[in-house]
């Protein structure tokens, strides 16, 4: 089961293309210690022929594309079990909850250090690289004898919840699989209320929710970890808090609450996402954004009526430092494979206290958002390996900075200097130019 994730799908198209892609100057080692990396990654960290199409193809039009190379729910269970068994006690896998349709939600815990780090993926079921990156990370950390791994294990307690929305993941769509009637059956006080604003019943990203409605689970969080849904809070809106209506968000909330009880504060929370396929660099419309990152999801609670109680714990500068560590790691990797360097800042004018990142930032966690290029309805599994690798490199850099304490020496001003995300150039303009559009 493990082998399929390790295969790189790049097909050599000819020596000429390879030569085109070779870096102009001798490769400079990035901050990642390559001596301890699995063999496949050293190939991934060099330019590949597919990097040429990465730079020319783009469409935001939903299509049915293959996704079988990503790890599905059944395979995730097998992989986590294998990693736990091979880890000699380092990795502890536990079922922490169950999705609305009865699929297991697992956590994997590794390390015994004082800093608690929570990492979640696939809250949107059509955003799949995070799950594979988490598995790669656990795979390495579960068996490595390196000094780096030892430092992580001593300084950090990493808890990962890969594929937190398994029902949405199996349907390969953003929302979970849950009706408003199921929500009101669990919370009878909501009968007669208008359904939540983040309840999908129409068509979104090419998916028809009319027969199988669902919620955007990532608007279902509340900074009050003990919040119980109240009729007067519905239907709500994106600038307001969510409700913990879905079993998926309640599961993550429960894990977060448990870590808070154990560690005082969850030091860092990372949520792994994908964004549109057609964003370009702000200074170069020919270069697509590989990854956008962010540490800012809510307005300053000190200035938000009703949020004052969170002001003392909220620490935007810390989130900025964590993001700088992500950014620096990817810039280092770009010395060898330039597309790793196309990293931009996600829009900073968001105020989303109903997201996991927003709610947990208000509880004092440093927060990091990854937004990899293209969801499955636009890219399918195309570029799966390199995009998963970009998430891995960012996570690796951040966790290394956390474990060494170097994160505290980073300058929040460097975050503000990360280039902003450029515009989305949409599908039409580039489709004409792309010779081999997969449309
Ligand atoms: Zn997302």
From TrEMBL:
It holds the Pfam family Peptidase_M14. GO terms for biological process: proteolysis. Residues 1-29 form the signal peptide. The keyword Zinc applies. InterPro entries: Peptidase_M14. GO terms for molecular function: metallocarboxypeptidase activity; zinc ion binding. The keyword Protease applies. SMART domains: Zn_pept. It comes from the Bacteria. Residues 32-49 have a biased composition (Polar residues). GO terms for cellular component: extracellular space. Residues 69-439 form the Peptidase M14 domain. Keywords: Hydrolase, Metalloprotease, Protease, Signal, Zinc. Residues 27-49, 418-439 are annotated as: Disordered. Its cofactor is Zn(2+). Belongs to the peptidase M14 family. This is Deacylase. It comes from Saccharomonospora azurea NA-128.
